[in-house]
Design goal:
Strand order of the largest sheet: 1-2
Order of helices and strands: HEEHHHHHHHHH
CATH topology: Hypothetical protein af1432
Distance between the termini: 70 Å
Largest sheet: 2 strands, antiparallel
Radius of gyration: 17 Å
Number of helices: 10
Strand content: under 5%
CATH superfamily: Hypothetical protein af1432
Shape: globular
Length: 188
């Protein structure tokens, strides 16, 4: 007879393999893409690490695996020929929906902000992605990107403020924006 511990072991195995598959899948689909001077997988791995870091602080620990998989896939629909339907087939509807929420389909940040207003997990992933991009911008002190992220931040953060669980992450992003504003003053 199969016990509940056997089923838990099976679920852990399936999730671990799905996460590994998502990493391999995303790496293959983004293989010719760069993130600054890095391979694009560097960006995906950093987003996954930030997702992992803020999970407990945002009361989202129970979504750890779904969010880590989504972190690896978050740009695959936007930047490659993969569709949301294909993500759904390969990874399930929950992950596909999170990826869809953060996908900028028509070069419209406002559309993404509207999608994440009503989707806590999509909002969380979008903020983690932005955190990584802003962190890299701060390291490089690129005036073009400093201005870009400062200008986009108000709309992004206003679109997610109703998600009370994300307060700590929102505060971290606001601190980054303040740092970028100070840096921009010094550069200009």
């Amino acid at each position: 007879m199969i016990s509940s511990s056997d089923l838990n072991l099976k679920n852990k195995f399936v999730i671990k393999n799905l996460l590994t598959f998502s990493r391999d899948f995303a790496a293959e689909k983004h293989q010719n893409q760069k993130w600054g001077v890095y391979s694009y997988t560097e960006h995906l791995n950093r987003v996954e690490k930030v997702v992992d870091y803020f999970l407990e602080k945002c009361n989202l620990l129970s979504y750890k695996n779904i969010l880590k998989i989504s972190a690896q896939l978050h740009d695959v629909v936007e930047d490659t020929d993969i569709t949301s339907e294909e993500i759904s087939t390969l990874f399930g509807d929950k992950i596909s929906n999170i990826v869809w929420c953060v996908t900028d389909e028509n070069n419209s940040k406002e559309a993404v902000y509207q999608k994440i207003k009503s989707n806590l997990l999509g909002a969380y992933l979008k903020l983690c992605d932005r955190y990584v991009n802003q962190e890299e911008t701060i390291k490089g002190s690129h005036p073009k990107y400093l201005k870009k992220y400062i200008n986009q931040s108000e709309d992004l953060l206003n679109s997610v403020r109703q998600h009370q669980d994300l307060k700590i992450l929102i505060l971290a992003l606001e601190n980054q924006v303040d740092e970028m504003k100070n840096m921009l003053k010094k550069v200009l």
